Amino acid sequence: MEGTPMAGVRKLPSGTWQGWYQDCDGKRVFFTLTPTATKREVLTTAQGLEVKHSQIRLGVLPRPSAQTAALVRPIAEVIDEYLAWGALQGGRHNRPWAAQYQATVTWQLGWWTQQLHLHTLGDLHGILPRVERTIQQLTAQGRSPATLNHYLSALHGFVAWGRKRDYLQEEPFQHLTWMPALVQRPRRALTLDEIHRLLEACAPSHTLLYQTALLTGLRANELRQLSLDHLDVDRCGLHLDAAWTKNRQPEFQPLPRALVRALYASARSGVPSQQYAQHYKRPGGKRRVTCPAVPLLFVPLHTEQMLYADLRRAGIPRATPAGKVDFHALRVAYVNLILEQGATPPEAQHLARHRTAALTLSATQGYARTRDTRLQTLVEGIASQVLRDTPRAPGVHALAVGDTMMQGNQADEHERQAKRHGAPRIFWYISRRISKQKLYAKG
Prior knowledge:
three-stranded antiparallel beta sheet, mainly alpha, hpI Integrase, Chain A
């Protein structure tokens, strides 16, 4: 321990330096700066706070108001209060932050504290020019606009929280300019033929993952959280936990019976647990991400690279004029299969777990997509009613692939039979694939 009789510094068991000083009321106050702050930096801050509060006790400086007192609080202390609030009720609908988001915000605020040399909460006033210079340096390093906005969002959220509690007298980011987002290529929905080719060409260890994504619409991180406890064999579905779903709502996701059996057999085999232990282990025994004790299936950390390799093997282009294909595009395909099966807007919204039906049905900002073959079929269906007694020529798409009118009529008959049985062809196909892989549980 060093410093003046009232101010000092010590090293915590975690390796972080902790300082203390005596405030104007004679109470000893402990604080920490960033985890990487040096002993000299913490001691200098403690001595400065000690001198300021001693002048208040002697009457040299006026006793601060409640708001002014907040400005001299160590920035790390206020950040800890903000993080504790977020862990309790900082998320949507006053729910806790997700663990991954909590870790990201903690790291980013610590990074900003170090980059901007923040010691007290009052140091945030007039900080915008330094923030802009830091953003310019990150831009020169090649960081994307989306990444820069994530950095700004962490600091902006902390400042907005401080403003709501009257900790800050003014808005430091009143004139903040966010980075323009890049125009992203929209995702397209895989066709049935492409889905068949992907499932035929992918590695055997990826088949069950793709099948589950295509028949549930679950996101990669949601699939990663599934355990045997979430599987309901009797009701044929999954109980989704509000702690890790994106909408933070508990849901029940129905599944085909064949997929339920395959997931049950996968979890009981213990193979997913072994794959997680092998691929997610860091040096020192710590895992890179958390996974359930008895996972239903294995989800790699980099799902995009896995899917891209399987797309190349299947001869499916990653990008076309209609859009790109990534792992989240499997969710887009799921929503479109639901709609093409004839689901009503409320049914599609419920199965997709969207807050509004507009997000499910919007073709520009949502998940609904159109197919040229489907549009041609609709036009031919209208023509069959309007031109009832007029001979019709084969459609343009039928001529392009060499189909005849007889083949078109047979396809329509197959489609009518599929609707009468109440299951889309992709569900039948995946069921046959699961049977061939002998993934049914014994007994």
